[in-house]
Design a protein that fits this description.
The protein is an alpha/beta fold and 118 residues long. The chain is built from five helices and four strands. It has helices at residues 2-15, 19-24, 33-51, 68-73, 88-97; strands at 56-62, 77-85, 103-109, 112-117. It has a four-stranded mixed β-sheet with strand order 1-2-3-4. 18% of the residues are buried.
Length: 118
């Protein structure tokens, strides 16, 4: 399993700079009007469901990536948000997007967590 995990971490480290383009269906990730509309409708439903959750004191986000969902989780976080990701590249993009306080980042590579990045 370690090879699979290493491959997955490598994949997301390499894709960090283009991940938002994929999520937002921009450029080469544009799937056409019908497919994009369906995608964004599903994303909208997920966001609405997330907003229906009562505010939580502490929130833990696993595989926080570039911060797309971190920004949404801040809406339901009262005190602290901890974001975990195995890719320092993803965490760097996430940190650049999330400018409010009360959150911390943890990078996990393999089985060994590094120090919390604040």
């Amino acid at each position: 399993y370690s090879n699979i995990l290493e491959e997955q971490i490598s994949y997301y480290r390499c894709r960090a700079s283009e991940y938002d383009e994929w999520f937002l269906r921009e450029g080469r990730y544009n799937r056409g009007e019908h497919s994009n509309t369906q995608w964004f409708n599903e994303i909208s439903q997920l966001k609405q469901t997330l907003l229906s959750i009562p505010k939580q004191q502490h929130v833990l986000e696993l595989a926080g990536g570039t911060g797309i969902w971190t920004l949404e989780l801040l809406n339901i976080t009262q005190h602290s948000l901890t974001v975990i990701d195995a890719s320092l590249e993803m965490i760097a993009i996430n940190q650049a997007k999330v400018v409010s306080g009360g959150y911390s980042y943890v990078n996990i590579t393999g089985d060994t967590p590094t120090d919390i990045i604040q």
